[in-house]
Amino acid sequence: MLNHKWLKVLIVMAFGSLPLIGSANEVQSTFDKIQERGKMTVCADPYSYPYSVKNITPPGFDVEIMSELGKLGGFELEMSWADTGTRGGMSRALRNSIIKGRCHLFAGVGDNGEDDVLMG
Fold it and tell me: The domain spanning residue 65 has which CATH number?
């Protein structure tokens, strides 16, 4: 089995939303919660093909990557869907999902600095 250090590195690399969580201690805390529950809850846009798609096979590569990371880490993957295309867009989706603690990670969120105003 992949050691936990490398699994953490893979999770951090797979998601641009981890900087939204905050400090390294908070990232560690999130990883600890995933291990304790044996389940990682990932939020994603259900209409963001080819990244993530609800009820279609293949489900999108973000979903497939998270599923493989779950297998490597020995935990289950649970998807929570947050539509970024509705009124309020990404800002509303983030407020109603990861910020409220409904998921550990939000797939498909880039961190190029341009959208920092969304979190303010």
Answer: 3.40.190
Q: Is residue 115 part of a domain?
A: no
Question: In 3D, which of 14, 18, 16 has the Cα closest to residue 28?
Answer: 18
Does residue 119 sit within a domain?
A: no
Into how many domains does the chain fold? Answer: 1
Classify residue 9 by burial, with Cβ atoms within 10 Å: 0-12, 13-18, 19+: exposed
Q: For 15-32, write each residue's pLDDT tens digit.
A: 544 444 455 666 678 778
Number of C-beta neighbours around residue 117 at 10 A? 8
Angstrom CA distances, 9 to 34, 49, 84, 92, stand at 15, 25, 27, 28
pLDDT of 16 reads: 46
The list of the chain residues with pLDDT below 50 reads 16-21, 120
Cα 73 from Cα 118, distance rounded (Å): 32
Predicted model pTM:
0.68
Domain housing 28: 4-110
Q: What are the φ/ψ torsions at residue 54 (nearest 5 degrees)?
A: -85, 135
